Amino acid sequence: MRPNKTFLIVLAAVLAAALLSPTPPAAAAGKPVELMLQWTHQAQFAGYYVAAAKGIYKAHGLDVRIIAGGPGLDPMNELADGNVDFVSAWLSTALIRREEGLPLVNVAQIVNRSNLLMISWKDWAGGSPRDLDGRRISVWEGDFRAPYLAWLQAEGVEPAAIYPQYYSVNLFLRRGVDACSAMYYNEYHMLYQAGVNEDERSVFFLKDYGFGFPEDGLYCTENTIRLDREMVAAFRAASLEGWRYAAEHPDEALDITMEYVTAANVATNRPHMKWMLEKILTSIVPGGKDPWTLGKLARDDYEKTVQMMRGQKMLHSQPTYEAFTGEVTARVP
After folding, report:
1. Which positions ≥6 away from 326 have C-beta within 8 Å?
2. Radius of gyration of the chain from its Cα atoms, rounded to whole angstroms
3. Ramachandran category for residue 295: left, alpha or beta (phi over 0 → left; psi -120 to 50 → alpha)
4. DSSP 224-280
5. pLDDT at residue 8 in the model
6. Is 285 helix (H, G, I), strand (E, B) or coil?
7. Taking Cα atoms as reference points, which of 115, 93, 105, 131 lies closest to residue 43?
8. What residues does the SsuA/THI5-like domain cover (predicted)?
9. Rounded to an integer, what distance in angstroms lies between the CA atom of residue 271 and that of residue 44?
10. pLDDT band at 234 (very low <50, low <70, confident <90, very high)
11. What is the per-residue DSSP string for 151-198?
12. Which residue segments constitute the domains of the chain, with CATH numbers given?
């Protein structure tokens, strides 16, 4: 049977309309960005995971890939080689690497309250730092070492020996040393999970003695800012939004963190990650009486950190506060 004339006219009109209609654009892809962490996946970095999982980075026009660090990996070298766009790092690490020639800029100061501790067996150090005099202690290597050495010197403590501390507290647990360095959000709770009760140990918060300095921050190079200031500003804003969301929805943030932890086969457990998230958030998102602003490195904290590091001969010069923080912090809330 031959099609009638009316059918052919309608078909022609439909085809013409289809040809003339614009093709719907493909979904806009975000700008590729890579962030490398200074350690393996854990709740210390929950805000970035949340920003990725909840589409916050995407809403700011970014497609962010989060890369774990860990033993044998140096995020700063990856940044210097142009393999990543941003890294998380301690303030002291960034200051050292900048003096060595890597033009780092503090895009956002994330951890503004120090979590550094010295933990000792109570039967060896009752409650005063002076009880550590003549004792064996273990301290992390690298830039983690400086605050402890400065604190011991200020307290007039001369340990019998200072041993390098690596990635566990086993030497302390076996009583190979009388005291060890620790982070409140990490090793402090590890010892509890290992069966060491609070009444068995003495704890010294370095911040209580004037040696608490800002820790994790987000960094990029001056060249990255020159090439794409808007991208840097968007990354900063989205990352801080991720941390705000994590603080407001801690259970959801923990679930998201555990997805990263599980996928990477990190040797940890949910209760420890819950402790870590709870404690790290109090060092990031200020409460009513906290003196810092979320994401901003205070000039006074910067100067105190530089002074301590110069006193320990870790720095010989310093960039100006303005050069170190760039204009991104000032321009973006």
Report:
1. 105, 106, 107, 222, 225
2. 25
3. left
4. HHHH-HHHHHHHHHHHHHHHHHHHH-HHHHHHHHHHHHHHTT-S--HHHHHHHHHHH
5. 38
6. coil
7. 115
8. 43-253
9. 14
10. very high
11. HHHHTT---SEEEEE-S-SHHHHTTSSSEEEEETTTHHHHHHHTT--G
12. 31-113+214-331 (3.40.190.10), 116-209 (3.40.190.10)
Report the distance separating Cα 261 and Cα 70, nearest Å. Answer: 13
Beta bridge partners of 9: none
18-23 — which CB contacts under 8 Å span 24+ positions? none
Q: Give dist(CA 152, CA 159) in Å, integer.
A: 8
| Residue 310 CA from chain centroid, whole number | 24
Q: State how beta strands 161-165 and 201-205 pair.
A: unpaired
Amino acid at 123: D
pLDDT in tens, 279-306: 999 999 999 889 999 999 999 999 999 9
Task: Locate 326 and state its tokens.
Answer: 């760039």
Q: Look at residue 266 and give its three-state secondary structure.
A: coil
Give the 3-state secondary structure of residue 330.
Answer: helix
Return the number of other C-beta atoms located less than 10 Å from residue 155's C-beta: 16
Contact (Cβ atoms closer than 8 angstroms) between residue 179 and residue 172? yes
Q: Concatenated DSSP letters for 5-56?
A: HHHHHHHHHHHHHHHHSPPPPPPPPPEEEEEE-SSSSSGGGHHHHHHHHTTH
Q: Nearest 5 degrees, angle CA 111-CA 255-CA 236? A: 35
Q: For residue 44, which phi and psi values (nearest 5 degrees)?
A: -55, -25
**Coil, helix or strand at residue 202:** strand
> Which residue, among 172, 182, 112, 146, has the nearest Cα to 307 in the 3D structure?
146
Strands 136-140 and 161-165: parallel
List pLDDT tens digits, range 206-229: 999 988 899 999 999 999 999 999
CA 23 to chain centre: 43
Output the six-digit token pair for 307: 């002074």
CA 91/CA 213 separation, integer angstroms: 8
- Predicted TM-score (pTM) of the model is 0.88
